[in-house]
Amino acid sequence: MSVRIEKVDLPGIGTRHDVITTEGRRLGVISHRSGDREIAMFDQADPDSCSDSIHLSDDEAIALSEVLGTSLMLGQFSHLGDKTTGLFTEQIILPANSPFAGKTLGDTKARTRTKSSIVAILRGSEVVPSPAPQDGLEAGDIIVAVGTKQGLEALSSLLCDDKP
Q1: Is residue 148 part of a domain?
Q2: Cβ–Cβ < 8 Å for 16, 24
Q3: Average per-residue pLDDT in the chain?
Q4: Is residue 125 in some structural domain?
Q5: Is residue 145 situated within a structural domain?
Q6: Is residue 61 in some structural domain?
Q7: For 18-26, which contacts have Cβ atoms below 8 Å and span 24 or more sequence positions?
Q8: Which residues of 66-87 are buried (b: 16+ CB within 10 A; e: fewer)?
Q9: Which of 126, 131, 128, 138 is nearest to 63 (CA)?
Q10: Alpha-carbon span 74 to 97, nearest angstrom
Q11: Is residue 63 very low, low, confident or very high in pLDDT (cuts 50, 70, 90)?
């Protein structure tokens, strides 16, 4: 799958990166020299004419990137639950009484104990993709894991029981 992205220098303003969709629509992200940014929508009939633009604050830009990144990542994980592969994904909420709340991922020894892999940790609007053993776990974290049904059940039991 290839995506067409065009970079356009805007003298005196900054840079615009345009994403051209498979339907031929043009969506631009303008990065101003001042640090401001905006999203530009281009007219479908005239791709050189901007039909609308939306200024984004820093927080809005961060939130939009997190929403897009998280939804894409979770969408890709959801396709793993295919009967032919025997792999499934699961989201497990780490309860406050978990023996691993406040500890590191490595402390769980989850892969060794359950043969399941923790592939991401979602904490509020933050995503920790491919977490490392030293990454911390907090109550309320959503643990995204991949494994067999039996392995995921064992992982859920490991993380959610109040005794390790």
Answers
A1: yes
A2: no
A3: 84
A4: yes
A5: yes
A6: no
A7: 18/42
A8: eeeebeebbeebeeeeeeeeeb
A9: 126
A10: 26
A11: confident
Q: How far apart are CA 37 and CA 83, in angstroms?
A: 44
Q: What is the per-residue pLDDT across 98-136, written as a single tens digit (0 to 9) for each?
A: 999 999 999 999 999 999 999 999 888 788 888 999 999
Domain carrying residue 23: 4-56
Q: Which two tokens stand for residue 153?
A: 């059940």
Are residues 125 and 155 part of one domain? yes
Do 144 and 85 fall within a single domain?
yes
**1-15, 36-50, 72-86: least confident range:** 72-86
pLDDT in tens, 68-88: 766 555 565 555 555 556 778
Give bridge partners of residue 45 from the DSSP assignment: none
Domain at 107, CATH number: 3.30.70.1450
Instruction: Determine the pLDDT at residue 112.
Output: 94
Helix (H, G, I), strand (E, B) or coil at 133: coil
User: Quick one: 94 and 144 in the same domain?
Assistant: yes
**Backbone φ, ψ for residue 43 (5° rounding):** -60, 130
Whether 95 and 141 share a structural domain = yes
